[in-house]
Every structure is written in structure tokens, then in C-alpha cells.
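pls design
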């Protein structure tokens, strides 16, 4: 890999996961047996969530996927979360098995933002609360897990809570990658400057305190604060991309001290966690990218569901270095033909990005919803999710790459009809325009008319095979039956001569 390309990868990943903190500690108890009611939260300070945020221009969140909450039967409310948070320091080395030890390192007051989306009808509440560490990759707080999961969240009656955990989301800071689209001029300003009338009272002491802030919000929610009388039964921490780095650190270092969460939903992590930083600082993601890899520790009771796209495995994220076996507390799903970010996640912003080839249009969000359903079912009933094959990897000296078939489609991993009955080559590899954002968006390259004619004698046969593959994917547990219409909608029979 050239120095220029390596530098671009570092820049984009540093922005897509910019700012956070690392943590580590020993857990008590074993990881055997049923995951239900396996976590006993450790008492400690809880965030004050009693003050609604009002005025200004209303709740701000960076998203390309607007959702009609009223139609979904949901309400949205916003609160200040305040208290005094603790930072951490590592005691000893950060072992590759994730068995890290943390100790307190200082305290600071904080006043951050919490955004709540919950069923309007309390009777429809499932008892599940997804607490998302909001992503600041684009220079503003964003909610990628909500964007990927909202259909399943609202179908089930789960509550979603987004936490402005990192400094840049509140105070602003350097933006290393820009996503074109409406509102891109707000990147790096922070909530306080974006809408001073609503958020001017917020104050973030730095990413060294972010983990305890996240813990304290969870404690407040578990006690019923900010949920208008709803009583959580299962608290699940979630994060995507840079926030997945934070989840890795939290699980290995902070969860053993707090037992604040019943489960973890980790999406597109890299091989390492995020380094600890001092007061007033943002986390050093670039340093994390070149840190030693770590698996999730195996001596905790809270289960981890780790979902990875094809493009997360090799390159600068190198999550393949942190692969670990499935267990009674861990699941890893790798999905062929998917990329770190894609057309679904970018929504209307995708049209403004020129990567020299169409960006990846894979169905990662459909697989993610099945994973979320699998994790909540695991926590509720004890029924473990399906295990999945890993994507095939080739290694030449120190370089790893995804194995591909003759058409250029990844082999192994979770298979959907888009890769097993293809009309396009869906790949995690970037297009020829190697801009920072394009390095993460993969590609969608049409198969030639000649190749399509070789694969499918007629349109009816294509549709039959596509439907059969969709049903196999659903039957294996990797897409929900509720999402069969959405999976079928990806088919392109018009590409096949009748």
C-alpha cells in the first residue's frame, strides 16, 4: 500500500471514528450458562436526566434517513444529562485477550445531551433499551445504529437512546472527512454553536470522561429517568464505526467495573480499542489504528454481538486480526458484499458523492436488523442467535485480502441473494476515486450482459433462484422474515432478458 493511500485511509478512519477513550479491567464471575438476568449492575453515580432540552430549533441529529416517528407510534424527547464523571487509567498492559484493568484517574463535571425515542403507548414497550454512543465521524452527532435498525426497533417496541458521549459532538472540533449534503456546513461546530438557544448550557470535559458519562446515563435510564414511566428490563450498549471502537474499550475495561449493560451490539469495529486521553482532549484514533489488536474478553456475563462488513476485515481497520470464536457469550457475523458505509446509510447524500463507480448498495442494514433481533431474543429467552461462517481471507506475507470468485464477489461469510444470485459485483473495495469518504463506501459494478446471459437463461429462472436464495438467507436466521419484501426489492429482473 502506498504512503499516499495509507495516509488517506488513516485520515478517513480518524474521522469516521475520531475521538473516544480506551478502558480496561477485570470482570467478576464466569461466562457460562444462560445470558438472561446474568448482569448485576454495580451501584454508582447516575446522570441527572430531569431537565428537558427545549427551545431553539428543536432536537438536532445528523442523519440522512428521516423517520416519521408519529407514524411509527413513537415520541421523541431530549434531555440534558449532568453529573460528575470519572476518567480512567490503564493498570498494566492492554492484553490482546481483552482482560484489561482500569483505575480511576480524575473527575470533572459534565452536562451533555441525551435523545430519547420510545413507544408512545407504554403497553407496547418491549423492555429493551438500545443506548447508542452517537457517532461524530462527520463532525456532528449522528445515529447510524438507529438508521440501520429503526424498522425492527419500532416493530418490537424497543426504546432508543442516543448519547452525545464525545467532545466534538458538543463542543466542536477538527473534521477530517466531509460528507456532502444538506447541513455539511455544520460539521465541526458542535451542538453549542449549532443551536446556542437550545444547547448553550452543555459542557463536555473531554473524551477521557466519556465512558463514565455513558455509564451514568445508563444508570439513570435503568432507574426510569427520561423514559416517562417506562421500566427497562434490558439495557444494551451499541455503537457503529468509531463508536464500535468505544464499545470494544467499554466492554474490556469499563463493563467489568460497572456491569451497567446487559448486552453489547458492536457494528464495524477495528482491531483495537481507543486509547485513553487526558482532560479536555479528544481520543487519538490514529494511534488506535496502529495499536495492538484485542479480542473481546471472555470472562464476562453480558453477551456481545459483533457485526462486520466485508470492508471492515482488511485494510486499515484490519478487524480480521481481532476475530475470535463464537461462544455462549459471543457472536460474530461477517457479511459478504457489504461495505463500512453504503447507499442505504448515506440516503440522499449518496447522490452527491463521486467515487468513480457506484457505491456499495448491499443489504447490510437487513442483516443488522436480524442481528439486533437475535441479541434481544438471546437476552429475553436465552435462545442463542445463529452462528455464521467467516468471510474467506487470503494472506500473502503480512498482507491480507478477501478471497473472491471469478466474478470478483467475496466467498464465505453470510450470503444474501445479492451475492449468490448476482446481477452486480458488490464489493467492499473502493472505487477508483480515492477520496477519503470513498475509501469506506465500496462499489457496485454491473455484470456484463454476456455474463448475465451465462448465469440466467431467462428472467423467470433468475427470479426463482433469487427468491430461493432469499428464503435460504431468512431460514438461516440472517435476515428477518418481516424484511423479506425489502430483500426481494433488491432484485433486478429487468436486467435479465425475458
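designed seq:
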Amino acid at each position: 500500500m502506498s504512503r499516499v493511500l495509507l495516509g488517506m485511509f488513516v485520515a478517513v478512519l480518524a474521522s469516521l471514528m475520531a475521538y473516544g477513550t480506551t478502558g480496561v479491567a477485570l470482570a467478576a464471575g464466569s461466562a457460562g450458562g444462560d445470558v438472561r438476568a446474568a448482569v448485576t449492575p454495580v451501584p454508582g453515580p447516575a446522570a441527572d436526566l430531569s431537565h428537558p432540552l427545549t427551545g431553539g430549533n428543536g432536537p438536532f441529529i445528523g442523519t440522512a434517513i428521516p423517520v416519521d416517528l408519529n407514524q411509527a407510534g413513537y415520541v421523541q424527547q431530549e434531555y440534558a444529562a449532568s453529573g460528575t464523571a470519572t476518567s480512567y487509567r490503564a493498570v498494566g498492559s492492554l492484553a490482546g485477550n481483552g482482560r484489561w484493568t482500569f483505575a480511576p484517574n480524575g473527575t470533572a463535571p459534565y452536562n451533555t445531551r441525551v435523545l430519547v425515542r420510545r413507544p408512545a403507548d407504554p403497553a407496547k414497550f418491549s423492555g429493551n433499551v438500545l443506548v447508542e454512543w452517537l457517532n461524530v465521524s462527520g463532525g456532528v452527532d449522528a445515529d447510524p445504529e438507529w438508521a440501520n435498525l429503526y424498522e425492527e426497533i419500532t416493530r418490537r417496541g424497543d426504546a432508543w437512546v442516543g448519547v452525545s458521549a464525545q467532545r466534538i459532538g458538543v463542543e466542536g472540533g477538527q473534521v477530517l472527512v466531509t460528507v456532502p449534503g444538506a447541513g455539511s456546513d455544520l460539521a465541526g461546530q458542535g451542538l453549542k454553536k449549532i443551536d446556542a438557544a437550545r444547547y448553550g448550557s452543555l459542557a463536555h470535559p473531554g473524551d477521557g470522561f466519556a465512558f463514565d458519562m455513558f455509564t451514568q446515563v445508563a444508570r439513570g435510564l435503568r432507574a426510569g429517568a427520561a423514559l416517562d414511566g417506562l421500566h427497562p428490563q434490558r439495557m444494551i450498549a451499541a455503537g457503529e464505526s468509531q463508536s464500535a471502537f468505544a464499545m470494544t474499550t467499554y466492554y474490556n475495561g469499563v463493563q467489568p467495573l460497572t456491569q451497567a449493560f446487559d448486552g453489547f451490539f458492536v457494528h464495524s469495529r477495528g482491531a483495537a480499542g481507543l486509547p485513553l486521553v487526558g482532560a479536555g482532549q479528544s481520543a487519538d484514533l490514529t494511534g488506535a489504528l496502529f495499536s495492538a489488536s484485542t479480542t473481546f474478553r471472555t470472562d464476562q456475563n453480558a453477551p456481545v454481538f459483533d457485526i462486520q462488513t466485508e470492508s471492515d476485515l482488511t485494510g486499515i481497520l484490519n478487524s480480521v486480526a481481532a476475530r475470535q470464536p463464537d461462544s455462549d457469550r459471543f457472536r460474530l457475523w461477517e457479511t459478504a458484499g457489504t461495505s463500512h458505509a453504503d447507499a442505504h446509510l448515506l440516503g440522499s447524500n449518496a447522490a452527491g458523492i463521486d467515487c468513480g463507480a457506484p457505491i456499495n448498495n448491499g443489504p447490510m442494514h437487513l442483516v443488522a436488523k436480524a442481528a439486533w433481533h437475535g441479541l434481544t431474543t438471546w437476552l429475553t429467552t436465552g435462545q442463542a442467535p445463529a452462528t455464521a461462517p467467516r468471510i474467506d481471507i487470503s494472506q500473502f506475507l503480512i498482507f491480507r485480502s478477501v478471497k473472491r470468485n471469478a466474478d470478483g464477489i467475496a466467498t464465505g461469510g453470510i450470503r444474501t441473494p445479492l451475492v449468490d444470485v448476482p446481477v452486480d459485483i458488490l464489493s467492499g473495495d473502493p472505487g477508483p476515486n480515492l477520496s477519503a469518504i470513498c475509501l469506506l463506501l465500496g462499489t457496485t459494478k454491473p455484470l456484463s450482459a454476456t455474463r448475465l446471459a451465462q448465469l440466467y437463461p431467462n428472467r423467470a429462472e433468475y427470479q426463482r433462484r433469487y427468491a430461493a436464495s432469499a428464503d435460504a438467507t431468512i431460514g438461516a436466521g440472517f435476515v428477518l422474515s418481516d424484511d423479506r419484501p425489502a430483500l426481494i426489492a433488491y432484485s433486478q429482473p429487468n436486467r435479465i432478458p425475458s
